[in-house]
């Protein structure tokens, strides 16, 4: 693995930490995701198409949503995608770099991108945000977690997994808001604390 290639670090990293990050016996409904997703689903109709960018192993978001919506998940980790196909057989999952994938304009009624865009090199994130907007129908919704403070770096043995190297890159919330104002309206914003920092959740 090239430790200078962020995409390889993220793909191989999640391959390695997949079960530590999301155990097979975790309770998907006993999580903050239920509250976050309810903000989204309350504005959608049953059967609407949702794109889950950075879907991971399909838990918890795709599993929570799959009974009522048409879910397409994208993740860069082959292990995560293989698990997702088993965990959520009624959804469609694609193993791909979310920056390189493309969909027909107006393909989705909503997009999720939870704890995922922060693994994309910062120089590629603004273009990805514009891609997301093009994939949404008129009035489509985006639920996304972004950085709160500017930081780029890696962590070795992430989650206590030997060899589990991981990469993050994010701007500050003011920068993200400026990027999203070009094409999106803000419905809500909240802060999610984590350690001595945290993330911002935007709808």
Give the helices and strands, then pairings:
Elements: H1 6-21, H2 32-41, E1 49-53, H3 61-65, E2 70-75, H4 78-87, E3 92-95, E4 108-113, H5 122-135, E5 136-147, E6 151-155, E7 166-170, H6 173-180, E8 189-194, E9 197-202
Counting DSSP E segments of at least 2 residues, the number of strands comes to 9
* Weakly predicted, low-confidence segments: none
- β-strand amount: 25-35%
Nearest-angstrom radius of gyration?
16 Å
- The whole-number mean of residue pLDDT values reads 95
| DSSP helical segment count | 6
Distance between the termini: 36 Å
In short:
With 203 residues, the protein is α/β, with parallel strands linked by helices. The protein has six helices and nine strands; from the N terminus they run H-H-E-H-E-H-E-E-H-E-E-E-H-E-E. The radius of gyration is 16 Å and the shape is globular.
């Amino acid at each position: 693995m090239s430790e200078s290639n962020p995409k390889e670090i993220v793909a191989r990293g999640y391959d390695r930490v997949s079960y530590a990050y999301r155990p097979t016996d975790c309770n998907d409904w006993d999580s903050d995701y239920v509250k976050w997703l309810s903000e989204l689903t309350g504005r959608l109709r049953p059967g609407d198409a949702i794109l889950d960018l950075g879907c991971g192993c399909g838990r918890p978001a795709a599993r929570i949503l799959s009974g009522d919506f048409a879910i397409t998940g994208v993740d860069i980790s082959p292990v995560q995608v293989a698990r997702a196909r088993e965990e959520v057989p009624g959804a469609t999952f694609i193993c791909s770099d979310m920056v390189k994938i493309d969909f027909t304009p107006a393909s989705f009624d909503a997009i999720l991108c939870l704890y995922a865009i922060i693994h994309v090199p910062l120089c590629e994130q603004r273009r990805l945000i514009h891609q997301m907007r093009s994939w949404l129908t008129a009035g489509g919704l985006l639920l996304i977690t972004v950085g709160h403070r500017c930081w780029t770096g890696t962590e070795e043995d992430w989650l206590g997994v030997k060899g589990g190297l991981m990469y993050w890159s994010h701007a500050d919330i003011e920068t993200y808001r400026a990027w999203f104002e070009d094409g999106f309206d803000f419905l809500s914003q909240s802060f999610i604390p984590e350690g001595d920092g945290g993330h911002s959740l935007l709808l």
